[in-house]
Every structure is written in structure tokens, then in C-alpha cells.
Write a structure and sequence with these properties.
This protein has helices at 3-13, 19-38, 84-90, and strands at 43-45, 49-56, 59-62, 69-72, 75-82. By secondary structure, the chain is an alpha+beta fold. It folds into two domains: 1-41; 44-90, Irregular (HU Protein, Chain A), CATH 4.10.520. The strands form two sheets. Strands 1-2-5 form a three-stranded antiparallel sheet. Strand 1 and strand 2 (49-56) form a beta hairpin. Helix 1 packs across helix 2 (19-38). The chain is elongated, with a radius of gyration of 19 Å.
Length: 109
């Protein structure tokens, strides 16, 4: 699903919201998550998952063309861990609640 598809689905589900307002909201959400990660913070969205950073240690790599050793610096990478409810939905397990707040008519892609 692309960002524009997400905006369209949210706008269709909430007809009182204008698509440009939904686009602004989605953009704000992504910006807030990105800014928190840049600050080194963890972002937890209950039932969905957690965004965090992992530190990769420096290592010695190889140039595939020449085979020469190349020093690869340490770096931070974004990491996503699914929440319990999302994990259960992906694996077809019951969540234990009759209405978990998810629209089950949406296809899982």
C-alpha cells in the first residue's frame, strides 16, 4: 500500500474529512515518527508495533569487483517489531476480543 492509497482509504472511511486534510494528517504522523527516531526515541503504537533504532557495529567489508577489504563505518538502522495484535492477525489467530477495532473487510496485502 502506498501513501496515496492509505490517504484514499482513510478519506473513504471518513467522508467528513477532506482528502487534503487526511494527506496532511498522514504526513504529520510519518514526520512525527521520523523525528522521534532521529532523536533516538522509540515509537510504540499499541497493537500495531514498535519502531526503534538498532546500532550496526563497524565491520570489514569486501569490494565485490576487486575483492579488496573496505572499512564499513557503524550506522543506525530503523527497526520495526510487530505488536501482538498485528502478529496474531497476520497468522490468523484470534485476538481474544470480539471487536479489536480493525476493519476486517480490508484485504491483508
Amino acid at each position: 500500500m502506498t501513501r496515496s492509497e492509505l490517504v484514499q482509504k482513510i478519506a473513504a472511511k471518513h467522508p467528513t474529512l477532506l482528502p487534503k486534510d487526511v494527506d496532511s494528517l498522514v504526513g504529520w504522523l510519518f514526520d512525527a515518527i521520523s523525528a522521534a527516531l532521529v532523536r533516538g526515541e522509540r515509537v510504540e503504537l499499541r497493537g500495531f508495533g514498535t519502531f526503534s533504532l538498532k546500532q550496526r557495529q563497524p565491520r570489514l567489508g569486501r569490494n565485490p569487483r576487486t575483492g579488496a577489504a573496505v572499512a564499513v563505518a557503524s550506522k543506525k538502522i530503523p527497526f520495526f517489531k510487530t505488536g501482538k495484535q498485528l502478529h496474531q492477525r497476520l497468522n490468523g489467530q484470534a485476538t481474544g476480543a470480539e471487536d479489536d477495532g480493525f476493519d476486517t473487510n480490508l484485504p491483508m496485502e
